[in-house]
Amino acid sequence: MDPKRLISITQPYCFTLDGTGQLDCFETASTVCGDEGSQWVIRVQYPANNLSAIERVGSPFCSDPAEPVVSDPASGTPDAPPMPVVTLADFRSLNIAPSKIESDSGGFGLIRGNTNFFATEEDQTLNSTMLGQQVAIQAVPVQWTWDYGDGSEKLANPYPGGPQVEFNQETTTSHVYEETGQYPVGLTTSYRGQFSVNDGPWIAIPGTAEIPSEPVTADIWRSTSKNVADDCHENPEGWACGSPFVED
After folding, report:
1. How far is CA 75 from its chain centroid?
2. CB-side exposure of 247: number of CA atoms within 13 Å?
3. Contact residues for 238 (Cβ-Cβ < 8 A; gap 6+)
């Protein structure tokens, strides 16, 4: 291969050259590039015989969702092996692990209080062989969409949330239920993808893969106040001594 030839491909702007995703950047990109399947990308180039000299050139731009983000950099080179290209359909067919739904109190909450659920967050790298070449595919979570099961509008959030600092604290992923009962809480995580061939630069995969999580149950109770004379140290069986959730 001609060492003077520069290979130019497109890379997702929100990934660093070493493949690390930047969540704040993805949030901005979703606003800048609003069309379905469009990504914020940037050109990268490197000498044909020196991958370590890879560098970004120009300014980031929004890819056209109707056009492939990457073309084969080996095209035009005699006897060069074809470059594998991971499509959105390929990406969505992968066994991407869903986020796990967590909660502060095992799903128990109080009517008109802040019941808090949050999700796990994990980048995933899957390895495959395509056209006889080693391909690494990375899936990075960029959005979590919550369905709280009570008919309210779904909540799309660019952050997975986290535990409450104190009871009944409002968080970015907490929810207020207006009626008592049990509600199925669902979650769908959107993953952005990129792939690398033979440890080469990371290349964007247009679009996202939506992966549903195993639902959990929100068990919403009504709170009441009572004056009691029992000392729970002296009488552990006294009213509400064992748990704040009791039957009348």
Report:
1. 34
2. 0
3. 228, 230, 231, 232
